[in-house]
User: Fold these one by one.
Assistant:
Number 1:
Amino acid sequence: MAFGKVLDDKTSARIQRTVASSISRKGVDKKGTAFQMVLLTTLFITMLILVVLIFDVVQGGWEVLTTRLWGFMRGEIGSGTFPERLGVQQGLYGSFWIAVFVAVFAFPIGIGSAIYLEEYSRKNKFSRFIELNIRNLAGVPSIVYGLLGLFLFVEGIPFLTGPNSNGRSATSAGLTLAVLVLPIVIITAQEALRAVPSGLKEGSYGVGATRWETIRYQSLPYAAPGILTGTLLSMSRAIGEAAPLILVGATTGFLGSNPNILDVGSVRERFTAMPIVITEWTQKTNTVNEDVFIPSAAAAIVVLLVFVLLLNIVAIYLRHYFEKKRES
Amino acid sequence: MTTTQQVQHVNSPETKQPFTVEDLQMNPARSNRQKAIAGVFAVTAVTSIAISGLILWTLLAEAWVFMVNVDWASVWDIGWFPRRGIYDIKTLIVASLITTGIAMMVATPLGLGAAIYLSEYAHPRVRSVIKPVLEVLAGIPSVVLGFFALLWIAPNVVGSFSANDAGSLAAAGIGVGILTIPLITSVSEDAMAAVPSSLREASQGLGARKSATTLRVVLPAAISGIVASLIIAVSRAIGETMVVYIAGGAAQTAIYTDFPTEKGLTMTAAMASQGSGTDNVVGEGLTFQSLYFVGLVLFVFTLGLNVIASRFVNRIQEKY
């Protein structure tokens, strides 16, 4: 050291002790501790709400689920005069076929748009316009999509979507929800494709692969987990969504047939879906049959939550798993 | 295969022909396939524009019929009775604003607090547990929150300070608020994570405490993202349907109210209840068109909010 020692050892040790004790002493930063406590409390309240919510629903549906689970899964949306016939099969049927329509229409179109936007299009005004448009579509309230579905699929093409049901069918509902989740599929797939390292693509071009070959054999396999996460999340969104279905004409009361889940023939008939079943039964609060419908509604929520949360948990797990794998 | 063979052929000493452009060009079949595939993807990308166009056209076409034919005195009246020809839009807008306001009063402190804690304080291991739990909360369908709002929040929370323990705007608002917590948390946490750590280190290097660093350095730097998260949450809350439809307390019709603990009908709930129950949405006169008129008003609200929010997000991107 060019300057030599300014302080002797003893003094510097004392200063060190004083400084250390003044900054590490407990309770010295009272405001900071209080702030941290407030933050922790908000987090705690949020978690508590989630716990109370799930506990309330499971407790409400417990009796139905434990005493007559099979009958409940096979039952009808029907009337409250026969509580033993109440069940979710028609709802499961509608939700299943809605999911099929979403998978068939929204996934290919959504992933295709994402590939176009990330891999093909030049960054010009037109592609910026498409991207802005997709972002705005993602923010459109779901009920507005219901208006679109009502106008387009129910009133517009009933001869295709439901010749016997005035267009009020699982087909119309599925198409409407496919339109609704399309922006989500596009945005998540775009993010996944954007995360593909450019070295991978450049290497592929370098050995003479064409653009499509590069996408097919490099970008898509690398982005697949991310794209899959996005599709699973949009699927869970679609089967939990109720507002557009109400406008598309989901049946809330007695439904004639009780089709098997895999019965394709009924997709153009009158339909209902899990969230609609729940809504309908919940709205029986303060009516004569309240004590039949409310526990059933809670049980139906448990059934729906099992599907939705399973999709979510698989998606979240996949993402974390692949993120970790990439990092290592 | 063919390309390599050609190249070898050209280079072989017997021929000694010079390279031509054709030799380096792609096999025409292969190149046509490329163009076809690119064309298919371009078509899929245009679908989203078509959807936007259809939404606008649908809303405008039907709302136009309503606006031309309606007696405008009935749009500013005592309440929302579409089947009787009374379409008081202010009843719906005020109810929407009340539920949204209550939702934001619930969601802002909880969502922001959780975001700040997760971004600045939480141990990585705590974070890795809590973030997925919040994502689970985000994945809960809105009908479930509707059930919870009507059967738990209304009697236990709203019922504790008012006489109304059935559905009310307040119960619905709290339910919507719970739904928007994860949205606020994830967007504003992203904004705080985007603040360069050099700013935090500089602040701590100057001797600022953790809380001062968070409140005076990180939050101001992330403020546009945080504001954007709140605006997006407002837009989501206004457009939320099922919670207010189930827990709002009013069915089909509503008399004007600006009292949160009364039952009320928001724009979204009015549309849903008009579409449900009966076999046909079509009712007397302009009932069907009034649905699209309300839809247009709602669309304008949410689109405006989303555009403002994206301005805020863009601003933060420019800064660093």
Number 2:
Amino acid sequence: MTGGAGKERQTLLAVRDLNVAFRLADGPVHAVRGVDFTLAAGETVAIVGESGSGKSQTVMALMGLLAANGTASGRALYRGEDLLALSPRRLNRIRGEKITMIFQEPMSSLDPLYRVGRQIAEPMVYHRGLSWRAARKRALELLKLVRIPDAERRIDAYPHELSGGQRQRVMIAMALANDPDILIADEPTTALDVTIQAEILKLLRELQDRLGMGIVFITHDLGIVRRFAERVYVMREGKVVEEGPVADIFAAPRHAYTRMLLAAEPAGRKPPVDEATPVILEGRDVSVAFPLGGGFLGRQRQELKAVDRLTLTLREGETLGVVGDSGSGKSTLARALLRLVPSEGEIAFLGRDIAGLNLRRERGLRRQLQIVFQDPYGSLSPRLTIGEIVTEGLLVHEPSLSRAERDRRAAAALKEVQLDPAMQTRYPHEFSGGQRQRIAIARAMILKPKLLVLDEPTSALDRSVQKEIVELLRRLQAEHRLTYLFISHDLAVVRALADRVLVMKDGRAVEEGETEEIFARPRQDYTKRLMAAAFLSAGAPAEAWAG
Amino acid sequence: MLAYALKRLLSAVPTLFLIVTISFFLMRVAPGGPFHLERPLEAKVMENLNRLYHLDEPLWRQYFLYLSNLLRGDLGPSFVYRDFTVADLFAAGLPVSIQLGASALALALLIGTFLGCIAALRQNSAADYLVVGIATFGITVPPFVVAPVLSLIFGVSLGWLPAGGWGDGALANKILPVLTLALPQIAIVARLIRGAMIEALRSDHVRTARAYGLPTRIVVAVHALRAAILPVVSYLGPAAAALLTGSIVVETIFGIPGIGRYFVQAALNRDYTLVMGTVVVVSLFVVLFNLVVDLLYAWLDPRVRFNA
């Protein structure tokens, strides 16, 4: 940690009684209610909470970035000036120069139409009156400072030509351009792979040590708070429910909500299944290749091997966790096994080769193979009722069912995922993310599948909701002897759910084995890095990136 | 990029061929011919005319004859405007139509973009409603209403501008036709820009620009407008092709010697070569402008750039 606890540091930012309200059609919504917080020079403060807790709106209000229907009241003193009371012109002199911000979405936070060098240079040109040429020179230095490989070339890249981690580095370079006093980081690593996440955090820490800015870190991830922050504010429903030094909060949480957050870290282990259990799904040398174009006028066609000769076995009642960074081929593998993308190699389901079957013949098997997707918002049709969504599969697989019978089955399926069957007539937008994921599970379960592919089913959810879904999946598995192929980049959840783990990288299997074995004694470098980045190796905390 | 453009132009050849073929035979399915006048010609004269223009030969030979002439850039003689070749007619009329169309297009882009930005920046204010109202008006009122009304008010009642005629391209003669052509385009551009601009202003990268304290004019002009222009560019291809090849309504009402009139007149007169010529010219414009739009789009948006 930077600085000692005993050393008095100058207070940079003091927020007093901050309130944020949004005018909506059906009355005002109070997103932030009477929040107080302070940040000292060079200090790292985390604001933690689940979605909807008001943590992001708190900083948006300070930066004058609230949506048009939002208003903020209270005081936010920065070096004696109240940020909330400043004229836009005066505020523009502070934001982007003295207080800068990096955002969660590295994909969309940079302007897709301009080269990144120009975007880094822009604030310097407007704040300091630098010439474009001088600003570009400084932008190059900054890109080197944030350790973008091959900075001389990348400075002329467009955002879409960079990876998520590189884009976030560009964002950080932009934030540092004018030597800010305060850096606000709003979930800066949430959208990144764990290994990249660790690198970005390490970079932020090093930059803070060198440049001495204070950091306000907004996150929902307690693992990051524990390793990264000195003090923490826990927010819930727009209020700060608990605050204090990180060590104290983690050792002795006073508020029930903090305790709940801490307890929501995935726990429990799944015992492996017997070697003699019948095999449900077997894949041998499964490969999926996508053409990369470039085949014009007789030139050699390029291919991307998304999955490269992968072999796997799933026994009844087993959960195979598939982990790896994005682009490792996890989801493509799942789609190949479900026959949603064409693949090479053998795939046997319940002892039958399904790789060569055509769609019509597959239908009987298809109902036994179901999938739950990551995005609970995008994967449910907004124009169908819950009842229609859940029973849609029945229309295909059991067309002879009467409407009453279908309704009865839908009610049973909803009950199974702990939703009120009376909700059948409602639409997806009326439900929370966790509820929607339950609906997606009910949609799969109504067909009584043998194998359920879970493609990042908990990644878009808050930890406490995640925990409920994990418990639901556990119960369903026990009651129906379900087999899961569980895809996730979240190692904590995989550890809690899977009996075996398959680590993928660049379409290949890096390592496979029993969960405890892999987590306790990873053999391959890549697996080790993955584990270290996820802060999971208990007792060996921050070494992975604090060094 | 050059390779890409060439590839695109080459790929247009089969399209043009199909268009020419279909139009050729479709036109011949229609009853009558160029020399079937109200007062029938003498049989001998008719025979001579048919022979002169190869109309007495089998249809497939006429088709190949037309194709081979077309490949040599020869659009043939007009059947109805005697003593003129189709190329002569276009040489005289096309520049007029292009002038009017291009002026209307430029006007529409300027005013439409301006109005659209105003509306987006003051969303749900009186200014916004006014722009949306004007836009709806511009789209719904057809040019055959606008043209005579403008002509009546400014040409006849006020006498400020000529009520019609080309006047050898005098500026005063162009104002009303250009306005008539531009009005619906202004409306469409304003609506497109407004919608795209509202979305762009809410986007994450505009939030970033604001978070970095960039002046509002820079945020709007540099970061939001460029994104907002993209849908207009897509719209521009077909719109430009349609505008530059003239409008029958505007040219007829204002008495302007463009090529827009030929669309209908040639078809009614069964002026086979002129109909074909019009089809070829319009198709060429459509192909060309779609290419221009794609190149322009790629220039504006690096994400769709091709590695050619």
